[in-house]
Specification:
mainly alpha; two-stranded parallel sheet; globular
Length: 143
Amino acid sequence: MLPRTKFLVCLRHPYEVVGSYARSSRALADGGDYDVAFNRAMNQSVRASATDPAVRRVALYDYINERVAARLDRPNVLAVRYERWFREPKALLSEIAAFLQVPLGDGPVRLRAAVASAPQPRAERDLIRRHCKTAERLGYVLD
Protein backbone atom coordinates (compact mmCIF):
# COMPACT_ATOMS: atom_id res chain seq x y z
CA MET A 1 0.00 0.00 0.00
CA LEU A 2 3.01 2.30 0.49
CA PRO A 3 5.44 1.22 -2.27
CA ARG A 4 7.73 4.25 -1.97
CA THR A 5 7.90 4.12 1.82
CA LYS A 6 10.95 2.40 3.29
CA PHE A 7 10.55 0.22 6.33
CA LEU A 8 13.13 -0.80 8.90
CA VAL A 9 11.95 -3.96 10.63
CA CYS A 10 13.68 -4.83 13.87
CA LEU A 11 14.15 -8.56 14.45
CA ARG A 12 15.22 -10.14 17.72
CA HIS A 13 16.13 -13.66 18.77
CA PRO A 14 13.14 -15.69 19.97
CA TYR A 15 14.89 -16.63 23.22
CA GLU A 16 15.08 -12.95 24.12
CA VAL A 17 11.59 -12.01 22.96
CA VAL A 18 9.73 -14.98 24.42
CA GLY A 19 11.69 -14.62 27.67
CA SER A 20 10.71 -10.96 27.77
CA TYR A 21 7.06 -11.88 27.28
CA ALA A 22 7.29 -14.22 30.27
CA ARG A 23 8.58 -11.37 32.46
CA SER A 24 6.19 -8.76 31.08
CA SER A 25 2.63 -7.62 31.62
CA ARG A 26 -0.12 -10.07 32.33
CA ALA A 27 -1.33 -10.15 28.71
CA LEU A 28 2.11 -10.89 27.25
CA ALA A 29 2.98 -13.38 29.99
CA ASP A 30 -0.26 -15.17 29.20
CA GLY A 31 0.67 -15.34 25.50
CA GLY A 32 -1.37 -12.47 24.11
CA ASP A 33 -1.23 -8.75 23.70
CA TYR A 34 -3.37 -5.81 24.78
CA ASP A 35 -7.07 -6.42 24.18
CA VAL A 36 -7.63 -3.76 21.54
CA ALA A 37 -9.27 -4.12 18.13
CA PHE A 38 -5.91 -4.18 16.31
CA ASN A 39 -4.79 -7.25 18.29
CA ARG A 40 -8.10 -9.10 18.46
CA ALA A 41 -7.56 -11.59 15.60
CA MET A 42 -4.00 -12.28 16.73
CA ASN A 43 -5.05 -12.85 20.33
CA GLN A 44 -7.86 -15.20 19.27
CA SER A 45 -5.52 -17.20 17.04
CA VAL A 46 -2.81 -17.48 19.68
CA ARG A 47 -5.31 -18.33 22.43
CA ALA A 48 -6.77 -21.10 20.25
CA SER A 49 -3.32 -22.54 19.51
CA ALA A 50 -2.55 -23.84 23.01
CA THR A 51 -3.70 -23.94 26.62
CA ASP A 52 -0.18 -23.58 28.07
CA PRO A 53 0.81 -19.90 28.41
CA ALA A 54 4.47 -20.78 27.69
CA VAL A 55 3.50 -22.35 24.35
CA ARG A 56 1.21 -19.40 23.60
CA ARG A 57 4.13 -17.00 24.12
CA VAL A 58 6.02 -18.85 21.37
CA ALA A 59 2.87 -18.83 19.22
CA LEU A 60 2.64 -15.06 19.70
CA TYR A 61 6.25 -14.63 18.53
CA ASP A 62 5.50 -16.84 15.51
CA TYR A 63 2.22 -15.12 14.68
CA ILE A 64 3.94 -11.77 14.46
CA ASN A 65 7.05 -13.00 12.70
CA GLU A 66 5.23 -15.12 10.12
CA ARG A 67 3.72 -11.89 8.88
CA VAL A 68 7.00 -10.01 9.09
CA ALA A 69 8.99 -12.76 7.30
CA ALA A 70 6.54 -12.73 4.40
CA ARG A 71 7.56 -9.14 3.64
CA LEU A 72 11.30 -9.14 4.25
CA ASP A 73 12.18 -9.80 0.61
CA ARG A 74 10.57 -6.57 -0.57
CA PRO A 75 12.99 -3.94 -1.87
CA ASN A 76 11.56 -1.28 0.45
CA VAL A 77 12.09 -3.38 3.60
CA LEU A 78 15.33 -3.75 5.55
CA ALA A 79 15.60 -6.25 8.39
CA VAL A 80 17.61 -4.82 11.27
CA ARG A 81 18.80 -7.34 13.83
CA TYR A 82 18.57 -5.96 17.35
CA GLU A 83 21.73 -7.82 18.37
CA ARG A 84 23.81 -6.00 15.75
CA TRP A 85 23.24 -2.64 17.44
CA PHE A 86 25.62 -3.83 20.14
CA ARG A 87 28.05 -5.99 18.13
CA GLU A 88 28.61 -3.79 15.07
CA PRO A 89 26.71 -0.54 15.37
CA LYS A 90 28.75 1.42 12.80
CA ALA A 91 28.35 -1.23 10.11
CA LEU A 92 24.63 -1.47 10.79
CA LEU A 93 24.19 2.29 10.71
CA SER A 94 26.08 2.36 7.40
CA GLU A 95 23.74 -0.28 5.94
CA ILE A 96 20.71 1.67 7.11
CA ALA A 97 22.07 4.87 5.58
CA ALA A 98 22.65 3.09 2.25
CA PHE A 99 19.14 1.62 2.33
CA LEU A 100 17.54 4.96 3.14
CA GLN A 101 19.90 6.79 0.77
CA VAL A 102 20.56 9.49 3.33
CA PRO A 103 23.67 10.22 5.37
CA LEU A 104 23.37 9.18 8.98
CA GLY A 105 25.79 10.47 11.56
CA ASP A 106 26.18 10.08 15.24
CA GLY A 107 23.10 11.58 16.77
CA PRO A 108 22.07 12.26 20.33
CA VAL A 109 20.63 8.75 20.73
CA ARG A 110 22.78 6.23 22.58
CA LEU A 111 21.66 2.63 22.74
CA ARG A 112 22.34 0.58 25.81
CA ALA A 113 21.93 -3.15 26.06
CA ALA A 114 19.11 -4.26 28.30
CA VAL A 115 20.08 -5.02 31.86
CA ALA A 116 20.77 -8.72 32.03
CA SER A 117 18.10 -10.67 33.82
CA ALA A 118 18.42 -14.12 35.32
CA PRO A 119 19.59 -16.71 32.80
CA GLN A 120 16.76 -18.19 30.80
CA PRO A 121 15.78 -21.61 32.15
CA ARG A 122 16.83 -24.53 29.97
CA ALA A 123 13.23 -25.79 29.95
CA GLU A 124 12.08 -22.51 28.40
CA ARG A 125 14.77 -22.69 25.69
CA ASP A 126 13.81 -26.32 25.00
CA LEU A 127 10.14 -25.35 24.69
CA ILE A 128 11.03 -22.55 22.26
CA ARG A 129 13.16 -24.96 20.19
CA ARG A 130 10.26 -27.43 20.01
CA HIS A 131 7.55 -24.92 19.11
CA CYS A 132 9.09 -21.94 17.31
CA LYS A 133 8.48 -22.12 13.56
CA THR A 134 9.91 -18.79 12.42
CA ALA A 135 13.37 -18.58 14.00
CA GLU A 136 15.18 -20.25 11.12
CA ARG A 137 13.35 -18.20 8.47
CA LEU A 138 14.46 -15.09 10.31
CA GLY A 139 18.06 -16.34 10.42
CA TYR A 140 18.19 -17.32 14.09
CA VAL A 141 19.72 -20.57 15.28
CA LEU A 142 18.09 -22.26 18.24
CA ASP A 143 20.93 -24.18 19.85
